[in-house]
Amino acid sequence: MKLYILIQQLLRRKFIQYFVLFFILISIIAVIASSFEEMATYKVLLFGITYVSSFIFLIEYTARIVSAPALYPGMKTAKARLKYTFSFYGFVDFVAVLPCVLTYAYWDTEVVHVIILPYIFIIFKLIRHSRSFRIIGMALASVREELETAYTASFITICFSAILMYYIERNAQPEVFKNIGDGIWWAIITFATVGYGDIYPITFLGKLLGCIICLVGVAMVAIPTGIISSSFINIVQKKEQREKFNKEEENRR
């Protein structure tokens, strides 16, 4: 157990986190750059960066699996490792090492692009290594029930308005509102006040419903925004108060 704790402590060291963070960032840049035709001449270099980064992530992934019992002290070794493997971060870490395992075999084939595709999940590794993302995650977690309520109300409103709009407009625009799916698309872009203009009502009742949904949408979108903002501010304030308290305690000593 002491070895597992030691590995976990090592993984939490700032220089290790910055080291991994560096490879996360250059991997993301390499994946983005590989989509440009102008970068075709640097294909080997870009895939090389991806491969080396994946190898680093493979070492990190192995270390986290080995030391998983330190994260779950009350569990048996095998069960703790399985729990980490099937956790969110375990999945992200696994996807991050796929290019290292598979790219070598399919280097010069089209399959390599399919292998690289799941690599976009590496962006989620930033959550673990970024303090800002952790604060955002804490803010969302602390108001989960409130957000569930707000989004449930939004979902009900969108479904109701989509079905209603379909039956209002289907005779006037059968080629536009072909099914309720088209109504859902209209409801979402109207509710979010985006309004692409590709689908819109032309009847009086349809326009009236559109106006109502626009007004309701502004209010409904503002609710979760306000909830998240309030939670974020509270967490930042608590963090600052805690740091201030710790600093005062150190000064007293």
UniProtKB/TrEMBL annotation:
<feature type="transmembrane region" description="Helical">
    <location>
        <begin position="183"/>
        <end position="201"/>
    </location>
</feature>
<keyword id="KW-0631">Potassium channel</keyword>
<keyword id="KW-0406">Ion transport</keyword>
<dbReference type="InterPro" id="IPR028325">
    <property type="entry name" value="VG_K_chnl"/>
</dbReference>
<dbReference type="GO" id="GO:0001508">
    <property type="term" value="P:action potential"/>
</dbReference>
<feature type="transmembrane region" description="Helical">
    <location>
        <begin position="42"/>
        <end position="63"/>
    </location>
</feature>
<feature type="transmembrane region" description="Helical">
    <location>
        <begin position="111"/>
        <end position="128"/>
    </location>
</feature>
<feature type="transmembrane region" description="Helical">
    <location>
        <begin position="149"/>
        <end position="168"/>
    </location>
</feature>
<dbReference type="GO" id="GO:0005249">
    <property type="term" value="F:voltage-gated potassium channel activity"/>
</dbReference>
<feature type="transmembrane region" description="Helical">
    <location>
        <begin position="15"/>
        <end position="36"/>
    </location>
</feature>
<keyword id="KW-1133">Transmembrane helix</keyword>
<keyword id="KW-0407">Ion channel</keyword>
<keyword id="KW-0633">Potassium transport</keyword>
<dbReference type="InterPro" id="IPR005821">
    <property type="entry name" value="Ion_trans_dom"/>
</dbReference>
<dbReference type="InterPro" id="IPR027359">
    <property type="entry name" value="Volt_channel_dom_sf"/>
</dbReference>
<dbReference type="GO" id="GO:0008076">
    <property type="term" value="C:voltage-gated potassium channel complex"/>
</dbReference>
<keyword id="KW-0472">Membrane</keyword>
<protein>
    <recommendedName>
        <fullName>Ion transport domain-containing protein</fullName>
    </recommendedName>
</protein>
<feature type="transmembrane region" description="Helical">
    <location>
        <begin position="84"/>
        <end position="105"/>
    </location>
</feature>
<keyword id="KW-0630">Potassium</keyword>
<dbReference type="Pfam" id="PF00520">
    <property type="entry name" value="Ion_trans"/>
</dbReference>
<feature type="domain" description="Ion transport">
    <location>
        <begin position="14"/>
        <end position="239"/>
    </location>
</feature>
<keyword id="KW-0812">Transmembrane</keyword>
<keyword id="KW-0851">Voltage-gated channel</keyword>
<keyword id="KW-0813">Transport</keyword>
<feature type="transmembrane region" description="Helical">
    <location>
        <begin position="208"/>
        <end position="233"/>
    </location>
</feature>
